[in-house]
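Quick one, tokens below:
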């Protein structure tokens, strides 16, 4: 017996059928209704973005793809779609950044080969590892703030919450507070790192560094993520960004030890 589909899924499927026969306006209406029912469904948001993009509504498409990434941060397709939108708008740096983000998740597919060729053609400055650009974009796009953020909630989140729960709380960030909690990004990243979800950890480290680029320990953690993924050149480039003299006093020795360990690890792995 087939499992009954939800109302949101039924609306989504109807929208896909409408989009395929060229009824974009109706498809958008159905997808928006589906999102009203399941606002955290990254797949529905991604497909709404596709309908917008195919109908040259690039600003609307960009907004939906960014929303999709919030809920599906490891979905390479959203990054590729964002790059496509920015390319259509003639914004080359943003195109390059999102192509690079795509390559964080896909490196060997036919689409990845196409992306690498396009990046070569774009020839953007700092294309090998534009970490500063990543930071700037993360800061620019970090718009959600914790709504009604109170100390009891904060204590509960910090002590007991899983990365997913903390992420959802962050998405409720209050605009009234005028604060951006980089430390929560870093805490989530540590949780993901411990669970060996390295791509998800990278996303949160970059977001946190976008808010507080002076933090040195997260940069070390970012290097460790790339090293454990076997992307040793990336790891070495990140390590060049570490400025020990700017680290928190209680972190200096730990960062030194980790950097030494990472260097030895990378050297030994490269020799294999």
């Amino acid at each position: 017996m087939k499992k009954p589909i939800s109302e949101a899924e039924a609306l989504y499927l109807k929208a896909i059928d409408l989009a395929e026969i060229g009824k974009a306006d109706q498809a958008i209406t159905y997808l928006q209704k589906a999102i009203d029912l399941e606002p955290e469904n990254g797949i529905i948001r991604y497909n709404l973005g596709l309908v917008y993009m195919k109908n040259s509504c690039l600003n609307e498409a960009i907004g939906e793809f960014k929303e999709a990434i919030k809920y599906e941060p490891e979905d390479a397709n959203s990054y590729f779609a964002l790059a496509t939108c920015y390319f259509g708008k003639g914004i080359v740096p943003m195109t390059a950044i999102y192509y690079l983000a795509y390559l964080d998740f896909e490196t060997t597919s036919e689409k990845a080969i196409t992306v690498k060729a396009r990046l070569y053609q774009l020839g953007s400055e700092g294309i090998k590892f534009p970490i500063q650009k990543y930071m700037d974009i993360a800061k620019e796009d970090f718009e959600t703030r914790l709504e009604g953020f109170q100390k009891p909630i904060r204590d509960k989140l910090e002590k007991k919450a899983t990365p997913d729960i903390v992420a959802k709380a962050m998405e409720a960030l209050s605009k009234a507070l005028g604060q951006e909690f980089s430390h929560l990004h870093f805490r989530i990243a540590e949780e993901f790192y411990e669970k060996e979800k390295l791509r998800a950890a990278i996303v949160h480290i970059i977001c946190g560094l976008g808010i507080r680029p002076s933090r040195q320990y997260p940069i070390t953690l970012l290097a460790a993520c790339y090293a454990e993924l076997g992307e040793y050149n990336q790891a070495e480039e990140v390590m060049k960004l570490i400025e020990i003299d700017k680290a928190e006093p209680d972190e200096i020795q730990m960062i030194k030890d980790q950097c030494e360990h990472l260097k030895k690890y990378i050297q030994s792995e490269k020799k294999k």
